[in-house]
Every structure is written in structure tokens, then in C-alpha cells.
Amino acid sequence: MITAAGSDWILRGKTGWSGKLGWWVGWVERPSGPVFFALNMETPNRMADLPKRQGIANEALRTIEALPPEG
After folding, report:
1. Is residue 69 part of a domain?
2. Domain housing 54
3. Within-domain flag for 71
4. Quick one: the chain helix, strand, coil %, rounded to 5?
5. What's the pLDDT at 70?
6. For a Cys staple, 53 with which of 24, 29, 44, 58, CB 3.0–4.6 Å?
7. Residue 57 pLDDT
8. CA–CA separation, 14 and 12 (whole Å)
């Protein structure tokens, strides 16, 4: 699923949750090629922790310049 896009990139991903573990997997399509990612995290606060998945992965993707800086 497309979750975000810019002029030269598309972020595709899918979330999941087992009740104890949450994950978000996908890839960023860039002109230089795809960057794949997988995040798996414990969710002790259950539903309250689920929104954190995408933020954590997005920050990691920005760190390696797979996504542009936020702003």
C-alpha cells in the first residue's frame, strides 16, 4: 500500500500486530533503486504503542537518506 509519496520517491508498507508484537514492513521506491525495511517491536501498551511503528521506521529511513528530511 502506498503510505506516502514525493516527487522522486514512494513509500509502500503494511502493518501487522499479534497482540504482543507490532510490525511494519515495506520499501521506498527511489530512482536509485528500492530500499527495503522491516520493523518488529514489542507492544506492552498494546493499542497505544501501535502508532509508534511508522514513526520509528520513518526516522530510520531518514537517517539513511531513503526518505527526505521531515518538514
Report:
1. no
2. 2-63
3. no
4. 20, 40, 40
5. 82
6. 24
7. 95
8. 7
pLDDT at 33 over 80: yes
Tell me how far CA of residue 19 lies from CA of 41, 49, 51, 70, in angstroms: 11, 11, 14, 30
Q: Which of 30, 25, 41 is nearest to 65 (CA)?
A: 30
Residue 26 counted as domain residue: yes
Give the CA angle between residues 65, 37, 55 to the nearest 5°: 70
Contact 30, 47 (CB under 8 A): no
Whether 68 is covered by a domain: the verdict is no
Q: Please report which confidence band the pLDDT of residue 9 belongs to, taking 50, 70 and 90 as the band edges.
A: very high
What is the share, in percent, of the chain residues with pLDDT greater than 90? 97
